[in-house]
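Continued from yesterday's entry.
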Amino acid sequence: MILLPMKRVSIICASTFEARVIELLYETGAQGLTSFPVRGIGSQGEIEAASVQIEVILQPAKAEELLQRLRRDFFADHALVAYESDVQDEPPAESHVTTAEEQARLTPDAVLQEFKEGNRRFRSGQVTRRNHREQVRKSAPGQFPKAMVLSCLDSRVPVEDVFDQGIGDLFVGRVAGNFVNTDLLGSMEFACKVAGAKMILVMGHQHCGAIRGAIDDVKLGNLTSLLANIKPAVALSQDFPGEKTSANPLYVKHVAENNVRVALANIRSKSPILQEMAEEGQIKIVGAFYRLTDGTLEFIE
């Protein structure tokens, strides 16, 4: 059986005809139509009045039926123009989820390289198309993530997207200022020792509000004790040669990078389990700084 390509029917009409056209589309069984305003230049070079472009994707026979109806009901009044085109095939969306066998074969170095390549895809806009519905279904019986990422709370840092990873690929811990405490250390030990993750990545970021708050010694409810966890990074940054205020983005970045270094040191010193796994090559513990302005990751030694 030969499957004919689907057809996209595009219709441009005056906004006064939009409701009639959409009613006809539904009569012919159209689903998932889109409609948006357009303007153009007429045959005499004048700017035409605002119009509407309506697009719908149909089986070839339905597309032909729709064009015939449009020709019969609208063309005599010069009320619209319509055309059809083939819908280009797209590669199928990725629905695979990491299995226990695949996780076991991973090495920490391979996971780190995959994250670097994923970030390159993210920055270039070439992220993997994913079938999230299928990934949800397939990952429900069990999870075998590749890594644990500790990130800031900031809404502008979409962790899975930054590394072009799918459902079930990452453990993600988030707290304003991406510092380490007992709860997060326990979570990391679960992720790596129990669930098999091969890497811990601590990720700070540009323009971090928690970092600026710690620099400014902000006092506000429970935020006061939270920011106290970042003060060691502020103290570590007093060698900065320029203006040491939250208004200086270079200083804020310097503190944010030192804050990642403090977190890495705390992981190693406060979790013998994770330190031993790192020494034996079972996991990597790495740091990174994420630039909000372009999505780039800078890895921190």
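--- second protein ---
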Amino acid sequence: MIALFALLPLVFAAPQSTPVADPARVKTAITELEKAWKSNDAAERVRAIQAQATVADAEVVKWIAKGLKDKQVDVQKASIEALRWINHPEALTALQNAAKDAKSYKEQPMVFAALLKGVGQYSNKSSVAVLTDDIWAVQEQHVVQARILGLGRIRTHESVEALIDLMKVAGTRKVENVMPDFRLALVALTGVDMGVSQLAWQQWWNDNKSKLKIAPAMGELPKELSVKWKVYWGEMNEEERPRKRSDRGKDAPESPEGPADGKTPPKREKKEGGN
């Protein structure tokens, strides 16, 4: 099963703007997914999800989303990754709906972190409420990190306000371990760097919230933060990857899917606030 997931970045390498799926291809995809779901073999379901993950069609998305409620964790993970990259509005809706049921994932924090990461990948303003809903209910660090960095992808004033509010509500002790993630998300959104001081960010917000304008696209980040951002979101280019094994992933946040494997998932076209 591990070998199957090693292929995920390659399987999901879809273009930024997926064209309307060919009807014949859609029919084949649905047939294969139906066949897999009639089987009790988790590996067969994973293979079917991976094989049809580039068919951006609402009915195909519906079938892939069935994997979110599968009893097998491997199937859940395959479904999350497929929906993350398929770039279809129904896929985002499926991820959002699943993420609202945080209680179901308390015993599977890494799966929940991957799910929230999939929500954040779409950079859609409708996800702000999902990512901020009872953020401290599951306090595992990867889960909180996925919420924070997901907000960092949603380029709206509301996202910045949400991040500042989350820091304020949680208090100094609870926020301390994830302040580097708050810093990264806020710098990505605002272009301002107040370090890892909660107080400094709150003071900056009080002074600037009424006049703050969020640029449509993220500006260039300082090298250290750029590496962290690109490693987490799988945006490292070949020439940017560390050459020495000992340097790989240094100072970078750990991904819910595990250490970065050096492979680059597909790039997503960013839109202001998401639509």
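The CA atoms of residues 228 and 251 lie 7 Å apart. The chain has two domains: 1-99, 121-267. Will compare against the first tomorrow.
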